[in-house]
Design goal:
two-stranded antiparallel sheet, mainly alpha, 73% helix, globular, Serine Threonine Protein Phosphatase 5, Tetratricopeptide repeat, 2 strands
Amino acid sequence: MLGRLLPGLLAAASATRDAATGREREEANVALARGYVLTAELALKQHDDAAWVAADRALAAARASGHPVPIGESSRVLAITMRRSGRCPAAVRFLTDEARDLDARDVQTGAVRTTLMLTAAYTAANGGDRTAAMDLLGTADEEIDRWRAVTPSGLFTVDATQAHADVYRIGVHNALGTPDEGVAIAVGLDIDRMPTAERRARAWTDTARMWHALGEDRKTFSALRNIEREAPQEVRRPALRALTSDLLFSSARVQGVREFAARTGALSA
């Protein structure tokens, strides 16, 4: 539904921005940036090249607004687009440069810097650079120790908690091919207490990938069902349908997988 509504919403936001001046124009640019970030995120989930255009337009609108939170979030989604195209080192440099440009003394930008460092860590891990990934996780932890907060900015809310960092740490170990190092972190996470369905689904997704890499089919399926509970559309993404297919054709027989596969599009009904 949101995907169908976004083009019209973006057109309306763009027209509003073009007709506005002063503070109203700033606010319109923030709204436009948020709309393009959502568009880019939806395109990324579907492996659609339209993510490039949306992410670029998001950052342009965010920079025009002058607000650090939209700039940070737009930078993050553009870097994810770069990572998905295989440009991991360039994406890491871009993220660290953007974080460096933010005022380290400003509490409002603390959460933004943290999310940029966490995304950079995961990106470095995808590029096979363990040293950089772990260093960046350490930098993010230092930021969290300084600014224990969630930073709201109108249409944007940036999570900067230790639980959020721990989810990224599991993802980093998955990307580095060391999922066993994420087990203790995953066991210690209280995912049900995370503030939004999006965060909980992301945590269960990284946990599912970890258990799958370790050959724990039943725990993988349990995590997948938790994703479906939190955000049913997520388990229909190509990557998670592929994971479900792997379970379906695994030598282990896990009760309920076939029905789940049919329900989520991993198996034709």
